[in-house]
Specification:
single chain, 466 residues, five-stranded mixed β-sheet, 28 strands, binds ligand MTE, binds molybdenum atom
């Protein structure tokens, strides 16, 4: 912008308190945000950028990256920065600059933080999702951790201690095969009913792997702690990924779940027999089988017991369900229960939406996955080729687990006759778990403002010879 004064980055840096006025930069602009402070919806967090570029923070709080906010900012412009923001410098400010390189196979729904799912059609071909194809759900930049420096912080009843990476590796190695699913999986179908806040996941924000490392029980026993005797309501896990204000990603599970799973909760350093990739928690991740992805904390830094849930944003103000009439004006996150175990679900992965089948095809091979939380195994998957009028049972592929400790998904496949009186139809799948829980038939009845927990019948439209 011509005609405005120019300032150096040092000039801007000197304006970092209310007394000196608060300046920030964005691209080549210098902005005085002192007056704007009271009206900032995010409160004082904006002060983190005082005297600096606001871009790294917006890269983390990416909701800021929209035209409306740019316009508000422009009204506060007081000048230009002398040195035009070179690409290099922008890069230096980018908190995501050290993120790993990802497989081109993954389809991102957000680049920073990185969130991506594999193509659904490759997902159900393999029981153990290959590490490079495993969906990624990050909320923050991926931490850079050196194993020589890594130590798991343990705050146990009566003692504070830690366990170094090498010590973890020397403990008896146990494994669990478990499915990770984001509560936002299939949010794209909810968005079609009514807008929701959240990433536009299709049906592949789910993957399955074998995780190895010591069990939680072995780790606690090493320090003479018997979890059955711990007098707390929750066990809390914290990651090494931090928000700009320094608070880490965190999650908790009720102590009774931790007790019943103590031998199968794995403090994992291996994923499918390999070192855990950085995107999935390198060097150490807690794998809690049968619970929602959000509680399977990556880059595990600290474990402690508490009388209350993790205070993290993602435990308290996210990953909760609401009835369809709750909106952003009347929502009260304190009044809803945190998601721990997911409801029964399934999805068709092949054919994909919009597939045009051969003109004279009489049958179609349908493939997909089914999964239920809490170790509840899948006993049946019903699939329809006529929009849900008639159903055929799919062939369930064995997942090597027992009905009540089934932490892995069940892949399935079925050949269906296509209705011959139409050249387009809707394929539908719905699963039943060992507790005879079934999937609801519509998205409408379970719609919620965060777009989580969509386990409605999964539908895929196909045509024939169009
Ligand atoms: N752990 C940390 N430390 N930080 C995170 O952002 N995301 C959670 C969980 N663990 C997250 C985390 C969420 S919401 C999900 S769904 C899973 O990790 C995704 O695991 P994945 O990226 O290995 O697929
Ligand atoms: Mo998630």
């Amino acid at each position: 912008i011509e005609g405005l004064p120019t300032y150096s980055r040092a000039d801007v840096a000197a304006h970092n308190t209310v007394e000196t006025k608060i300046w920030v930069t964005f691209r080549n602009g210098v902005y005085d945000i002192t007056q704007y402070l009271q009206s900032h919806p995010g409160g004082n967090k904006i002060l983190l950028a005082a005297g600096k570029s606001i871009e790294p923070y917006w890269n983390v709080y990416s909701a800021h990256k929209n035209e409306e906010i740019y316009e508000v900012l422009e009204t506060l412009r007081i000048g230009n920065i002398t040195e035009p923001d070179p690409k290099k410098e922008r890069n230096r400010d980018d908190p995501y600059r050290l993120d790993p390189v990802r497989s081109p196979l993954l389809i991102p729904c957000c680049e920073k933080p990185f969130n991506a799912e594999p193509p659904a059609e490759i997902l159900t071909d393999i029981f153990y999702t290959p590490n490079h194809a495993f969906f990624v759900r990050n909320h923050l930049p991926v931490p850079c951790v050196k194993t020589e420096k890594y130590a798991l912080q343990l705050e146990l009843p009566g003692q504070k201690t830690c366990l170094k990476y090498e010590e973890l590796r020397k403990m008896p190695k146990k494994s669990v095969t478990a499915t990770t699913m984001c509560a936002g999986n299939r949010r794209n179908e909810m968005i079609k009913v009514k807008p929701v806040k959240g990433l536009n996941w299709k049906a592949a924000a789910i993957s399955n792997a074998k995780w190895s490392g010591p069990s939680l029980d072995d780790v606690l026993k090493k320090f003479k702690v018997d979890i059955d005797k711990v007098n707390s309501n929750y066990i809390v896990f914290e990651g090494m990924d931090k928000q700009p204000d320094g608070s880490p990603y965190g999650a908790s599970i009720p102590i009774e779940i931790a007790r019943s799973l103590k031998d199968v909760i794995i403090i994992a350093y291996e994923m499918n027999g390999a070192i855990i990739p950085r995107d999935h928690g390198y060097p150490v991740r807690v794998m809690i089988p049968g619970v929602v992805g959000a509680r399977q904390v990556k880059w595990l830094n600290r474990i402690y017991f508490s009388s209350e849930e993790s205070t993290s944003h993602w435990q308290r103000n996210d990953y909760k369900g609401f009835n369809p009439s709750v909106d952003w004006d009347n929502v009260n996150f304190d009044k809803s229960v945190s998601i721990t175990e997911l409801p029964v679900t399934s999805a068709i992965c092949e054919p994909v939406e919009g597939t045009d089948l051969e003109k004279d095809s009489e049958t179609v091979t349908v493939k997909g996955y089914a999964y239920s939380g809490g170790g509840r195994g899948i006993i049946r998957v019903d699939v329809s080729a006529d929009g849900g009028k008639t159903w055929t049972e799919a062939n369930l592929k064995p997942n090597g687990q027992t009905p009540y400790t089934s932490y892995a998904w069940t892949l399935w496949e079925v050949d269906l006759s296509l209705p011959q009186d139409a050249d387009e139809t809707t394929l539908v799948a719905k699963a039943v778990d060992i507790s005879y829980n079934v999937q609801p038939d519509s998205v409408e009845g379970i719609w919620n403002l965060r777009g989580v927990l969509n386990n409605a019948w999964h539908k895929v439209n196909v045509t024939r010879g169009k």
